[in-house]
Amino acid sequence: MIIEELRMTNFKLRPSRDLSLSFFLILFSWFSFAQVISTIDSTSIKIGEQITYHIQVETDSTKLVVFPEGQTFSPLEMIESYDVDTLKNRDKFNLIKKYGLTQFDSGKYIIPQQKIIVGDKTFFTDSIQVEVRNVEIDTTKGLYDIKPIIAVQKAHSNWWIYVLLAFLIIGAISFLLYWFIWRKKPLTEAEQIALLPPYDRAKLALKKLDESHYLEHQNMKDYYSELTFIIRKYLDEKVYDRALESTTDELIKRLTLLKEGNQVDLSKDDIKNLENILKRADLVKFAKSAPDIELAKIDRDTIDIEIDHVKEALPEPTEEEKLLDAKYREEQERKKKRKKVWITVAISVFLLLVTITGFSIKYGFDYVKDTIIGHDSKELLEGDWVTSAYGFPPITISTPKVLRRTTPELPEEMAQQIEMTQFGYGSLIDRFQIRVATTKIKNLGENKIDIEKAIDSELNLFENAGAQNIITKREKFVTPNGAEGLKVYGTMDAPVLGTDKLEKGKYVVLGFTAENVVQEVMIFHRENDTYAEKILERILNSIELKKAEN
Question: Are strands 44-46 and 128-133 parallel, antiparallel or unpaired?
């Protein structure tokens, strides 16, 4: 703007003044473009202590400023890169970028010049010397043993609520089963009477007949029906097991045969008395005969006497009969117990099926099945996840399990050219695998890393592990914090542990580059594993690292 304004003036400048003004304009334009300053908060630190490296750029709002990223501070290690702070000063902006640096070996180190791009101009900071001191140990106070590993308590979860709820439901069902099925309920009057011996039941039935109002209301039909049922029931249980369903003639004929066969010691008068009362009852019930009330009372007393005579006429039960009777009662008890068991099992199975059906409708049958039987991927998905940073520069990632450091075996020539660290969980034949690797290439010079070739070498590892029919797709991948990389994914036939069979699987390989570093994340799982798909999605959404420079 100043140059254009000078061109528009009609002033004539002297040669010396023109030269001075030109020099001033050049100097002014340089300072008006940008001013870069670098500082550190300390030039002397202890091993592992952090220092903060500041880069301050003063420029206008129209210029794009690119700060260094990645491990450009070597031999010091960058452990954190802070967000840029912006301060406005009139028509200028002060951009302040901070880095956390450290070193774990003592000595004197030089922080190299850092490249900052402002618009289309490149600036370099001054190199700075830092001293890293050893930690002094006072041996006069003695040394202590290394403390043992302390288990870290996991975060509290609400699992106990579900356990308590399950116990409450099971307890409620058990109580209901006990109360309605297994509990010994108080016997009703009818049940108490049923437990009495036949003779006592017959006598008690006669007393209840006396308490009835049949005779008062001259209800002879019901009176004689009850009276004959009492004697028939007693005879059915003690003498002839078809006495209830037999006619009067059939019953009297059977009693006569039993007497003649010396099986029942009844007199002819006893049989005759029973015959008269039974036939009179038949006339009352079917011919509407109406005997005198006093005769009905006499018949009642006669039945009472005949019950005693029948009891006396019956032989005493032998020990074998008593044993058979005891076995019969035991068998009846076992039948009742088996019935209760079957009812309990049927109700339990019904409630279980109803519960499974309800959860299947809400969550799906496969989920319920995997919850009951168990599923490796489901347990990983619903377990306690771990978020940690792996490698250097670090890759922050959330995984179902902690990734353990593995030491790759590299040929001697390759080991001299690259420095590789990797962390992993599982393997290809375990049907689920996660691997995070960081490779630092030495003496790269001006060459650039081909990320596609780096990922192709990862696919070669699949082939070496026995995988076949590897299908690949490629696309751009951006982490949640904006770092760009390459995503290679597809399917393969992976070997099954302990067999010669192959099983369909899916894989994803992510590759990122920063300066002379290659960062890779690899995930493999079985095909059609819905839980593994959710694990994969959760892992991919958790990855954070520094944006790779182009």
Answer: parallel
Q: What is the largest CA-CA distance in the chain?
A: 170
Q: What percent of the chain has pLDDT over 70?
A: 82
User: What digits encode the pLDDT tens for the residues 458-509?
Assistant: 778 788 878 888 888 989 888 888 888 889 999 988 887 777 788 888 989 9
Hey, what are 457's tokens? 């070498």
Q: Do 445 and 453 form a contact (C-beta atoms < 8 A)?
A: no
Eight-class DSSP state of 233: H
Indicate if the pLDDT at residue 10 is higher than 70: no
From 231-235, 238-242, 314-318, 367-371, the region with the lowest mean pLDDT:
367-371
- DSSP three-state, residue 512: strand
CA dihedral angle for residue 176, residue 180, residue 184, residue 190, rounded to 10 degrees: 160
Measured distance CA(444)–CA(518) in Å, rounded: 12
CA distance 422 to 437: 4
Q: Burial, 14: exposed, middle or buried (Cβ in 10 Å; 0-12, 13-18, 19+)?
A: exposed
Lowest mean pLDDT among 48-52, 514-518, 524-528: 514-518
Is 399 within 8 Å of 423 (Cβ atoms)?
no
**Cα 76 vs. chain centroid, distance in angstroms?**
45
In this structure, the number of other CB atoms found within 10 A of the CB of residue 546 comes to 22
Q: Return the percentage of the chain with pLDDT > 90, whole number.
A: 13
If you count DSSP H runs as helices and E runs as strands, how many of each does the chain have, helices first? 15, 20
Stretch 208-225: mean pLDDT, rounded? 90
DSSP string, 395-455: EEEEESSPPEEE-----HHHHHHEEEEEEEEEEGGGTEEEEEEEEEESS-TT----HHHHH
User: Running DSSP on this structure, what letter comes out for residue 544?
Assistant: B
**Is residue 470 classed as helix, strand or coil in its secondary structure?**
strand
Residue 75: closest CA among 40, 107, 34, 50:
107
Query: What are 532-547's pLDDT values in tens digits?
Result: 888 889 999 989 886 4
Q: What angle do CA 296, 299, 304 make, to 5 degrees?
A: 130
